[in-house]
Amino acid sequence: MTMLDTLFGLIPAESRGQQWVAEDLQLINWGGYDGGPHRVRFSPYATLLCGGSGSGKSTLMDAYIALMMPHTTPFNGASNGGITGRPRGDEQRNILSYGRGKIDESRTDEGTRLRVLRGDGEDTWTAIAMTWLDHDGSRFTALRAWYIPAAARILEDTVRVRATFDGFFDLSQLEEAASQRLADSALRTLGLETLGTDREFSARLHAVLGIGAAGSGAKAMSLLARIQAGQQITTVDDLYKRLVLEEPETMATADAVVAHFDELESTRTSMITARQQVNALEPIQGIRERIAAAAEQVRLIDEVGDFASPSSRATLWRAERRLDLLREVEAELRDRTHALDLTLREKKALVDAAEAERDGLLDLLRQSGGDRLETAQRELRAVERRLADVRRERDRFDAVLAELGLSASSADEFAKVQSEARAAQSEASARRQARATFAEAESARQSLAKRRRALAEERAEADRLRGSIPPALDRARMLLAEAAGLDVDDLPFVGELIEVRTEFEPWREAFNLALGGFATTLLIDDAHLARFRAAIDEVRLPMRLRYEGVQAGLAESPNGDGRTLPGRLDHRSTPFTGWLQQRLDERFAFVCVDSSSQLSAHTMALTITGQMSQGTRGAHGGHGRENVLGFSNERRLRALDEQAEALEAEVAAATAAVTEAEAAMDAIEQRSTAFAMIHGLTWEQIDVDSLTQELERWTAVEAEVTTANPEIAELRERAETLKVKAAVLRDEIGAVGAQRAEAQERWGAVTDDVDDCQRVVDEAESLSVDAAQAAFLDERFMLSSPSDAEGLSASERLARLDLALKSAAARLAADRRAAEEAHDEQRERMRQLMSSFLERWPNLNLLPDPDASVDDFLRILEALRANGLHELENEWRDSLLKLSGNDLTSLDSTLSRSVREIKERIEPINSIMRELPFYDDQHRLQISPRESQSEARKRFRRDLREVRGLIEAASTDDEREHAYKRMSRLIGRMRRSAPDFAELIDVRNHVRVSAERVLAATGEHVALYDHIGEKSGGESQELVAFIVGAALRYQLGDAGASHPRYAPVFMDEALIKADAHFTKRAIGAWRGLGFQLVIGAPNDKYSAIEPHVDVEYTILKDTRGRSWAKPKVAVGE
Question: Which residues are in coiled coils (predicted)?
Answer without folding.
Answer: 316-400, 438-465, 637-671, 809-836
